[in-house]
Amino acid sequence: MRRHRLEFVAPGRVEVQEGPAPQPAADQVLVQTRLSAISPGTEMLIYRDQWPQGVSVDATLEDLAGTFAYPLAYGYCTVGRVIAAGSAVTGDWLGRRVFAFHPHEDLFCAHPSVLQPIPDDLDDETVLFLPNMETAVNLLLDGAPLIGEQVIVIGQGIVGLLATALLARFPLASLTTVESHPLRREASIRLGAALCLDPAAPDLFARLGAVPGQGGRADLVYELSGNPVGLDTALALTRPSGRVVVGSWYGNKKVDLDLGSFFHRGRLTLISSQVSSIAPALSGRWQTSRRLDVAWEMLRQVRPRACITHRFTLTDAAQAYALIDRSPGETIQVIFEHSSAYTR
């Protein structure tokens, strides 16, 4: 067998590097990947060279340590099966289906401690959404939606859609979403939004009860579009004393905000949200393991595999990233099919 690994080699360029199959150390296992998913928000920052200088790739994940520089192997949504194990690894790992926060690669070695055994009642495609579902769970923990609140989600990429699906399970007064692309607006309604509006609509603010300089009606707004303009929109839609959760990561894109009209007098609260940590106020009773357990359960309830719009082989990776970059409205979740060695 030969190993094939995807690398970002320059702005707008990805290549598949081939090499000998890795051999697991005594305390490692060898995983054969079946599927991996592109995380379009973060991976587009790398593809477009919009990663902020001096920021580590991801210090919380073993396979993504270090600082950003081309060439870079990146990705964190991988499903496969353990096909070999080192001498010090217990025998029950062999043959297991596993999830890994690992870059796009068809064969890789890992310590069992960083792998997540996949429950028998979940299929591989559904499990690909685990990282983004965990992010959605974290967004709800940070925003703390309350019964009877009016909530708006700006951006219906995959994280936004999963957050919408979770919010739809709350007894809210209303749940409205904002999204540019019709395909994603349709998915938003399917996953539980009562209304999904185009941000370019001239009557957007009027339909959402917002008056320039005076705020809107939303108690809680999530900004998940990845577009810096979305944050100004979020502030304008929020009622006095309301809160805005910023789940977007803008990379090196600058944010130009209107903080001189309603922000201070409205006493709005801006909340940063990032899945690499638990909010300090919750850390006494919430740990990452508890949050991950909730994410697994939410996968069972939401079953988001219908959000997969495109499948590519790893050799066609350049086409996959070009599609997301140039025609984002045609995609929701794009995945790679690495091997037909097994199916689930």
Top keywords for this entry?
single chain, 344 residues, alpha/beta, 7-stranded mixed beta sheet, 6-stranded parallel beta sheet, 9 helices, 15 strands, 24% helix, 26% strand, globular
What does this structure look like?
This protein has 344 residues and is an alpha/beta fold. Helix 3 crosses helix 4 and helix 3 packs across helix 8. Strands 3, 4, 5, 6, 7, 14 and 15 form a seven-stranded mixed sheet that branches. Strands 10-9-8-11-12-13 form a six-stranded parallel sheet, with helices on both faces. The two termini are 22 Å apart. The chain is globular, with a radius of gyration of 21 Å. Helices cover 24% and strands 26% of the residues.
What's this, in brief?
The chain is 24% helix and 26% strand. It is α/β, with parallel strands linked by helices. The strands form 3 sheets. Strands 3, 4, 5, 6, 7, 14 and 15 form a 7-stranded mixed β-sheet that branches.
Going by helix content, strand content and strand pairing, the class is: alpha/beta
In the predicted model, the low-confidence regions spanning at least 5 consecutive residues are none
Compute the separation of the termini in Å. Answer: 22 Å
- Helical content stands at 10-25%
Largest sheet: 7 strands, mixed
Extended strand count: 15
Order of helices and strands: EEEHEEEEHHEHEHEHEHEEHEHE
Q: What is the tally of helical segments?
A: 9
Shape: globular
Rg calc: 21 Å
Kindly estimate the percentage of residues that lie in beta strands according to DSSP: 25-35%
Mean pLDDT figure: 94
